[in-house]
Amino acid sequence: MKTLCLLLFALPLHAADLIEHAKAHPDGKAAFSYDTTAWSDDEATRHLPIGVFDSGIGGLTVLEALLTLDAFHNDTLQPGADGVADFAQERFIYFGDQANMPYGNYSAVQRTDYLRELIVKDAIFLLGRRFWPAEGKEPQFTKPPVKAIVIACNTATAYGLEDIRKAVAAWKIPVIVVGVVEAGARGVLESKTTGGIGVLATVGTCASGVYPRTITQTLGLAGQSVPVIAQQGSATLAGAIEGDAAFPESVSAYALKEARALAEAYRDSKPTKPLQTIVLGCTHYPLAKDEIDTAFTALRQEPAFADLIAETRLFVNPAEATAKELFRELAKAKLRLKADERCILEHGQFYLSVPRVDEIGIQLSADGNLDRDYKYSRSPGQFDYEDTKNVPLSPALIPPNSAKLVRERLPAVWRSLSR
Questions:
Q1: Which end of the chain is more exposed for a tag (fewer CB within 10 A), N or C?
Q2: From the CB of residue 81, how many other CB atoms can be counted at a distance below 10 Å?
């Protein structure tokens, strides 16, 4: 009891209230609650799926890495490819909080308290059985709970990783929690970089300072010196990659602007070595790696940056590092399925949040999404009010440009999504 009190005391008020709300509804029927008996059988827990969430569809790049990773021998668990996907026996439940995105904007309007509540609610959704049908006015309870949660969103990891871990500890459930930022920092360590480090991310992620802090801690604990770390937060590149009409220039044009801004920030830090390692600190950015690399190549042709940027850059994709981290954590906890075992799900499941248009007080924009002023003025603590609902995601619900992106660049995800 003393440990639980300390955990709750260490959490911000809204997160502590949400933990107590979930505990008060142990059958998981209420909004923002879960069935507390779901992990009572250790063997049954191993056969549960793995949950992955992001603020939208960008986290599908992390899911692609999970579906395709072959970095370990499945029989011995030792590093090295064996021709078999490392998570071949596992199944995944993906959730994109599309209605409440972009997460990166909440900090800019001093709403990180509400953002942190949203992030814990994302975890509760994956833990629970409750979801809404695409058509219908009553929730259903046939979604299975999960044995692990992957936070596939850099901003959500920055603001909510510790809240989720403390919540899981307070609830005393055997669920693994892996965040993309910690895995990305491990990726920097494994890259054995000798030059400077640049982080390209969203405005919110950069505002949190989570990447410089986590990279510094990771390198320091490994006994390595910490080079200059610069970061650049973009409000445009992710939208351009997703094909959002609000960003009319090409991905290459936006990539060049952000690469230039990062190079200038790195130069202002007065480094002694060229910028060598680029951390793709937004889940969308691995989809534009070639355009980003081309941008840095172009900058090297300018005298101001010729000696500032390494001729060959190392790119750290936190998605791949996250997949490796999850494999290790599942193996360590003995929750990984073996070759002759099967998950309770035959295929993966996908969910997306949408506005709950029949909720009293909700405000919508002309395109049917949550009104921007309404979205960023909400306060935490309203656990009996749902202005969004989580529904099954099908290809038809993905905007055409985004669907094309997933189909062409994330083939494993597209196959799973199209079943």
A1: N
A2: 12
Domains of the chain and CATH, by start:
2-180+321-417 (3.40.50.1860), 183-317 (3.40.50.1860)
- Distance between CA atoms of 117 and 131, rounded to whole angstroms? 18
Cβ–Cβ under 8 Å, residues 125 and 117: no
pLDDT at 329: 96
Burial class (CB in 10 A: 0-12, 13-18, 19+), 261: middle
Strand order in the sheet with 176-179: 176-179, 148-151, 50-54, 92-96, 349-355, 388-392
CB atoms within 10 A of CB 382: 13
99-148 pLDDT per residue, tens? 998 888 888 888 999 999 999 999 999 999 999 998 888 999 999 999 99
CA dist., res. 361 & res. 237, Å (int): 33
Using one digit for the tens of pLDDT, what is the confidence trace for 289-300? Answer: 999 999 999 999
pTM across the whole model: 0.90
From 218, 176, 213, 170, select the one nearest 193 (Cα to Cα): 218
